[in-house]
Design a protein that fits this description.
By secondary structure, the protein is mainly β. The protein is built from three helices and 33 strands. The chain has a five-stranded mixed β-sheet, with no helix packed on it. A four-stranded antiparallel β-sheet has the order 2-33-32-31, with no helix packed on it. The relative contact order is 0.10.
């Protein structure tokens, strides 16, 4: 009897061992297949296009997407905010979800908007107007009147808002509000023009870019204000609000600035992208490199920057080479688009390369998310959180990313 029990145990053990061997072999084969697929994907353009189309199903064609009809008599403005595609028309802000369904509708008397979007907040005003609105989802959180004409707005991840004002006795005035609409302070520029502002995500600092053209050459500067010091200065004039200043070389024109994580400031000039930290400026990307046709660049991605280089591949073929750099480790990822980019849009961690009748949506890891093709010319593109709007004259097609 014991022999029979032992034989059964031995058979059970052998069966279990066989199952383990089969499972191990299957896992190894799967890892090998995945490894070969990845190797082939990155080493061969033709193989990559084949896998994107037939295995990963990344190719999307026009008319297969949900859409929003554009049938308005008044001026129409379209932008993405959070997970919504927004239509501003006829004094209404209409927010549509990724299925093209109207989610929220807000009364808003704005025809020519100046706005800034960050996460769940949108700060918006009439361009040249005097009223700022902060919106989240279906609610206007606050509206504030300012003394001057609103030229530019910036909102950070927590709903703090800064605005550049013109039309006062000063060349430029910068005003900042907290997320409840309380005015924290104003900064007055007598001889220079502010071109951009950015608020750190910990609400501690305001950086502003200014250009001074009163001398024989253009002088661009970035200055950093301690919000705590600036608010306390109303009680103590000895408190110095400006805690850092970065001066560019003469005739280097500043375009925009952006706070990235760890309170590092990314600065885009007409000739380069630099990182400003600890009182020093260091170039990350050159935008005027000899022998390279650099058409597009931006700093508005999540901890990444990029430039696009147009290269000729043979007599008739042109490629767009995306060079995407991680700000943390300064490693560069290369992604090649077949064709010449008509325009490049970027936001969050997405870069959209518009080729006219085709758009490639790429993430900051250099991975193709979607390839959209159309029978007609795409007019414009907007990018939100996991959603993109492809704009035509009579509709907006909605693409989930």
């Amino acid at each position: 009897m014991k022999d029979i029990v032992n034989i059964r145990k031995e058979k059970t053990k052998k069966t279990a061992n066989k199952k383990k061997i089969i499972i191990t072999i299957s896992v190894l084969i799967l890892i090998l297949v995945i490894g070969i697929t990845i190797l082939v994907y990155y080493s061969s353009r033709d193989a990559r296009n084949f896998l994107d189309q037939y295995l990963f199903r990344k190719n999307i064609t026009q008319e297969k997407l949900d859409s929003i009809s554009l049938d308005y008599d008044s001026n129409i403005n379209i932008f993405a905010y959070n997970k919504y595609i927004c239509i501003l028309a006829e004094n209404k802000l209409m927010e549509y979800n990724s299925a093209g369904k109207l989610q929220h509708e807000i009364s808003l008397e704005i025809n020519n908007p100046e706005y800034s979007v960050n996460n769940k907040y949108i700060a918006i005003s009439e361009k040249g107007g005097s009223t700022i609105h902060l919106i989240s989802d279906d609610e206007i959180l606050w509206s504030k009147e300012v003394d001057g004409n609103i030229a530019k707005i910036n909102v950070n991840d927590n709903g703090y808002v800064s605005a550049i004002l013109t039309g006062t006795t000063y060349k430029t005035v910068i005003v900042i509000f907290d997320n409840e609409g309380n005015e924290l302070f104003k900064n007055y520029l007598a001889t220079s023009t502010a071109v951009d502002t950015s608020i750190s995500n910990d609400n501690q600092y305001l950086a502003f870019a200014e250009v001074n053209t009163t001398g024989t050459s253009i002088q661009s500067n970035v200055k950093v204000i301690s919000i705590k010091n600036a608010t306390e200065r109303t009680r103590d004039e000895a408190t110095e609000p400006i805690i850092a200043e970065y001066a560019a070389e003469d005739n280097k024109l500043i375009v925009n600035i952006e706070y990235h994580k760890d309170n590092r400031i990314l600065c885009m000039y007409d000739s380069e992208i630099a990182i400003l930290e600890d009182g020093n400026s260091r170039v990350l990307l050159n935008l005027e490199e000899k022998g390279k046709n650099i058409n597009f660049a931006n700093i508005n991605l999540e901890n990444h920057i990029y430039r696009a280089v147009e290269e000729n591949d043979g007599i008739f073929n042109t490629n767009t080479i995306l060079e995407i750099e991680n700000v943390d480790n300064e490693r560069t990822t290369i992604y090649t688009v077949e064709g010449a980019a008509k325009y490049i849009y970027s936001d969050n961690n997405i870069i959209a390369v518009n080729l006219g009748q085709e758009i490639e949506f790429v993430n900051t890891s250099g991975w193709l998310l979607k390839r959209y093709s159309s029978m007609q010319e795409v007019q414009d593109i907007v990018i939100g959180n996991g959603v993109a709007g492809i704009i035509y004259e009579d509709k907006v097609e909605i693409l989930s990313l």
